[in-house]
Prior knowledge:
Elements: H1 2-10, H2 19-48, H3 60-63, H4 65-89, H5 117-143, H6 151-157, H7 177-200
Helix pairs in contact: 1-4, 2-4, 2-5
Amino acid sequence: MKSIEDVVTVIEDWSPARSKDRERLLGCLDALSSNCGEAIKVWQGYLDNPGAGGNQWTAVSWIGPERAKRLHELNLRSGELLHELLEIAGSEAARFHPYEDSMIEMAYRQLGAGETAPDMARAAVERMGAHRSYLGSVLDRIKSMPLVESRTARSASSPRPKTKKKSHVGKPKKGTAAGAKKAVKKKAVKKKAAKKVAKAAGKKPVRRSKQPPTGRTKRRR
């Protein structure tokens, strides 16, 4: 069934934290398989003792109301188990589950042209046997799936790449003799560059002369 295949796809990435959910899910699948087994027994019981034939309008007249009622109960239980299975997995298929065909073959239908209830019973046993085989294969597939570590956990546990520390070798510290020497050199380079710019513009750099003293000198008598 498509919904069960969807469940298998969903749980492929489950982490060890969801081990209990996986056990519940396996329990639902096992219960579904047992449910199909019970329905097979009902149909097989009719085949072992068919009794008098019924009419063409409904299979109930052939297998009897008690067997038909039991098949209906098993069908309801099958639907509950499948819905629980989808909810545990958190599958989007849970919305479409009511529209899928049931795994249980019931007796509330009209027989086809030339069909008898024993024909219907044999076909029902065969189909539900196939359902049980499929459920068994799904159980084996899920049990063989390893629980994987989640991506978040992997990123948290993985060591961070080491970052290279910036080297301060060769860079003089402020306040040292080397630092002062470098500052003087830098200032000289700037001054030289300013002279070149002035020369290129046709201007000579103006030197600042020392100002004469402003006080008057006394005459000698």
